[in-house]
Amino acid sequence: VEGGAEVGVIDSLVSGHGGNLENLAGVLDQVNVSISDIRDMDQMTHLVKDYDIVFSLAGQVSHSESMRDPLLDLSLNCQGQLTLLEALRRCNRDTKVVYSSTRQVYGRPEDIPVDECHPVNPVDTNGIHKMAAEHYFSLYYEVFGIRSVILRLTNTYGPRMDLENDSKGFLGTFIRKALCGETVCIFGDGSQIRDLNYVDDVVEAMLLAGAIDSVDGKVFNLGHPEPVSLQRIVDILQTLLEFPSKTVPF
User: Which residues form the NAD-dependent epimerase/dehydratase domain (predicted)?
Assistant: First the structure.
């Protein structure tokens, strides 16, 4: 919007999946909002026909929920992306897609740091389905010329993040409990390291991926050069807020 682009937002606003029109406060009158399901072919064919770049962020992100309801995860993360690609194939093959994947496609790291050549070996249905979606994008680029870039994201934080749902990741849980003065539990000894991405940096990376033609068809890890331990995250929070913490054998 700040760059003068015509921006459209497609969201089904399914409960529990993060969609909230309040997130568009301040720009709501400057964007085209459609309350639609990415799995609906007719709607998607109509909605994507006039756009130059699509940032595909829709889907299920909870790894635990993906194991509890793998068929829903399959529908959201595979059927949804395939429907988007089919809609583009039918009506707008010149569009470029920036797809937000996950570092979970790698599974348990064999080497640190993990680069894009690391073997993929997801350990849950969410990782499997996100990996399958990556292959859809690669296939449609090779066969139909629909350009795409795949970004494998790590833990993203910042304003408007979901703090209520523990299944969305440890960081939101840590922050919520810290704000409420509750005990933050670290499962393990706290030495486990994680990459953290600030949301503004993620947005900048996505905009660059959409604007630069030379990255078409490529996969990039989107992380931080300096990973941080779980204990260090808690220590930082405790410099700002008063709350107890403990480690739990795991």
Answer: 23-223
pLDDT under 50: residue ranges of the chain: none
Q: Is CATH 3.40.50.720 correct for 7-158+196-225?
A: yes
- pLDDT value at position 163? 86
Domain definitions of the chain by residue range: 7-158+196-225
- pLDDT, residue 165, reads 82
Between CA 85 and CA 67 the distance in angstroms is 25
Interatomic CA distance for residues 47 and 32, integer angstroms: 10
Sheet strands side by side (includes 148-153): 53-56, 96-102, 148-153, 219-222
pLDDT of residue 160: 87
Supply the pLDDT for residue 25.
Answer: 85
C-alpha to C-alpha distance for 77 and 59, rounded to whole angstroms: 5
* Phi, psi at 185, each rounded to 5°: -100, 125
136: Cα within 13 Å, side-chain hemisphere: 23
Q: Give the tens place of pLDDT for each residue, 15-24.
A: 777 678 888 8
Rounded distance between C-alpha atoms, residue 201 and residue 154, angstroms: 12
3-class SS of residue 138: helix
